[in-house]
Amino acid sequence: MEGSLYLLFIWVLWIYSTFIMEKSKAFRLPIAAFALIMIIFHPVHFSVMSLQISGSSIILLLICYYLTSKFSWRQQLHLLFAVFALMVGYAGFLLLELYDPVMIFIDRKILLSFLLLFISYVIYPSSIIKRCIFVCLGSLQGDIVFAAILSRMDFPYIVGSLEYMDIIVIVSAAFICIETIMKLSKVPKINKMRKISQ
């Protein structure tokens, strides 16, 4: 079922941040509010010009634009070029899938998730926040470009559909797992350094 991974992830995120996460954590309230807003706007769709855009994707875009505004101008410039390249590549992939679906022999969710994960680590190997912003802005704006092309042919298409949200969840979960593994792998090294210093 499309959107099942997204709904599961966002509900787990809200429950964890609301009831399990320590209240002293500064990012507890923003995460809980984000998850709740995404749940509320999940069934909502907006019509912008000739495009149908999901409420969740608009929230995601606004948050990414806000976080980007906090970067330095050099970081913003780098992100601009990186997002533009990903936008074109993502829209091109969707067009390739539309015109020649035989070439896409792997499940599109898995393939797109892997490609986004790989490219994000190449562009931003050290910052999970920048990776998330890069993936969300590039893929969502690529989805908008794809929807604009389809609208000229009178093909119905929803920007930020449930299937798209599933892909974002897979990539986000992969980010979290990789970051957790990397942090856990550093703990033994830190302990060894402490023993040597003692």
From TrEMBL:
The keyword Transferase does not apply. The keyword Transmembrane helix applies. Signal peptide: none annotated. Pfam families: YphA. The chain crosses the membrane at residues 6-21, 26-44, 50-67, 79-96, 102-124, 131-152, 164-185. InterPro entries: YphA_Bacsu. Keywords: Membrane, Transmembrane, Transmembrane helix. This is NADH dehydrogenase subunit 6.
